[in-house]
Amino acid sequence: MIEPLPDVLIRPIVQAALAEDLGRAGDVTAQACIPADARLTADFVVRKPGTISGMACARLAFHELDPTAEFIEEVRDGDHVEAGAVLARVSGNARAVLSAERTALNLLGRLSGIATLTRAYVAAVEHTGARIVDTRKTTPGLRALEKYAVRCGGAVNHRFGLDDAILIKDNHVAACGSVAEAVRRAKAAAGHLMKVEVEVDRLDQLDEALPEKPDAIMLDNFSLDDLREAVRRASGKVVLEASGGVNLQTVAAIAETGVGVISVGALTHSVGVLDIGLDAA
After folding, report:
1. Which of 37, 112, 167, 226 has its C-alpha lying 20 to 30 A from 181's C-alpha?
2. Which of 234, 237, 238, 194 is nearest to 215 (CA)?
């Protein structure tokens, strides 16, 4: 079972999305066509198979415009569904339902798209010991939701931001002068609960990093042969993360080299939405 995000984290995002859509005058179409006291019941129906994420976003979108709206969930975040499945039913003021429809579908569709793609990556490496993780390549303002969707798809989260782990990248190394010096400085500054990871793009940099004992080493755009060699040299003494050039066609072979973690930016930066519609009952 996926631990849901609290509404207090989701509500500001939903409110901002609704405000963007409603603009300066509100939903002029609904106001012109729908009587103020009309009621509407509609079903969320998924058009293609997928893994669901974002049900709370849909619920909150309707409750923002009609606090009395009834939202009945038929599935839970993390569930895999087939095409034609009814995800939820909403009943409430017709104007409010129609005005919130697009915001609800935008968020539910995008998050479910992330969860669906993530599930495919996780399935591709399930015969290995590797874990799929996300990156910080998220939509500005939606990181908490998108990383939650990754968890709904069965993967785990990398760091959430710049403040929760030290990740030394190539430009940090350039500024410090060497991989070893960068790791030494980071470990000297880090508190006892702060992890330190360093990115390397060659085997000689791996050799330089290993004696400094970082918590993890990111192997950036390594060939399969070099990944296997890196695993051999590390001998299980440090977490090895493969990054770069990862897609659904390559991820299994990368996992089979023996790396422990594979980071995939595409989970959030290149994903399509899961096709979901709202159909009047």
Report:
1. 226
2. 238
Kindly give, in sequence order, each residue whose CB lies less than 8 Å from that of residue 13, ignoring residues fewer than 6 positions away: 57, 107, 141, 142, 144, 145
Residue 59 bears catalytic tag: no
- Domains in the chain and their CATH numbers? 7-122+272-280 (3.90.1170.20), 124-269 (3.20.20.70)
Q: Pick the catalytic residue from 64, 79, 197, 199.
A: 199
Q: Is 220 a catalytic residue?
A: yes
237 labelled catalytic: no
Q: Mapping DSSP to helix (H, G, I), strand (E, B) and coil, where does residue 17 land?
A: helix
- Residue 199 among the catalytic residues: yes
- Whether 213 is catalytic is no
pLDDT digit string (tens) for 209-228? 999 999 999 999 999 999 99
pTM beyond cutoff 0.90: yes
Q: Which of 47, 169, 232, 237 is catalytic?
A: 169
